[in-house]
Amino acid sequence: MPASTSSTAAAPLERERVCVDCGCAFTGLLGLCGDCAQARLDRANEGRHLAEQKVRQEKWRALCPPLYQDTDWTHGGLGRGLAELVQRWQPGQGGRSSLLLTGPTGLGKTRAAFALLRRVHESGRSVHALHAGDAWDHGPHIQGLSSAVRLQYSDDPHRSQAALHCLQRARTCSLLLLDDVGKERASPTAGQLSEAVGEALFALIEHRLVHRLVHRLPMILTTNAPGTTLQARLGPDRGAPLIRRLMEACEVVGV
Ligand SMILES: Nc1ncnc2c1ncn2[C@@H]1O[C@H](COP(=O)(O)OP(=O)(O)OP(=O)(O)O)[C@@H](O)[C@H]1O
Ligand SMILES: [Mg+2]
Ligand SMILES: [Zn+2]
């Protein structure tokens, strides 16, 4: 007979036990019967899910200005077809994967954009929303392209960090809303964008919609400026190229 390598057999780990949760007798490894172990796991998962949901809701409240948090899609002032668009549109990755909402003021473009952004946010993907100017900034909170471009060079390290973080999120998030294109900070002379803002806008769009040809990073853009006005605002160097890029990458919806 071969010599035994181990003289002591492992003690049986499974034995008769009493479940600490329900008091039933069962045979197993731990102090819980199968049903109670599963129930504890379910409670833990549910707790985690609720905690994640709470964090998501808080992030949304920080991102979406209060004015746009609740939209009644039967409201008479909204543009026709907008409610249907909100039901239908999904961001894509190639082709015309982005959305450009154009039309006169007050028809609900920003409301629709936030409703679409929210759906993507709720699904757990990263989203960001920027106003082209600085309309959504408050206190130390920076959420505007023009203000972030300016404040990235602030002497206050908190502000410059916040501005850089905002611009970085705008570059990398899975869906970006850029609201009110054409309302960027103007240069003091002509009615055009300041050089730095124009450059940042161009670089942002180039990065998200052009460089990443295979997996474009979609955007939702809104504007109430007619195409010709927008082109003039963007300036002679960037106007036409930027509009061409948007036309190639966006489904254009007029409301
Ligand atoms: N609770 C509400 N639910 C739905 N619509 C509302 C509600 N309150 C106001 N409105 C409508 O929303 C409109 C404004 O929506 P929104 O700001 O999205 O328009 P917009 O097209 O983005 O305008 P702009 O081009 O000036 O930015 C108002 O004109 C009003 O008719
Ligand atoms: Mg708007
Ligand atoms: Zn039990």
From TrEMBL:
Gene3D superfamilies xrefs: P-loop containing nucleotide triphosphate hydrolases
Name of the protein described by the UniProt record: IstB-like ATP binding protein
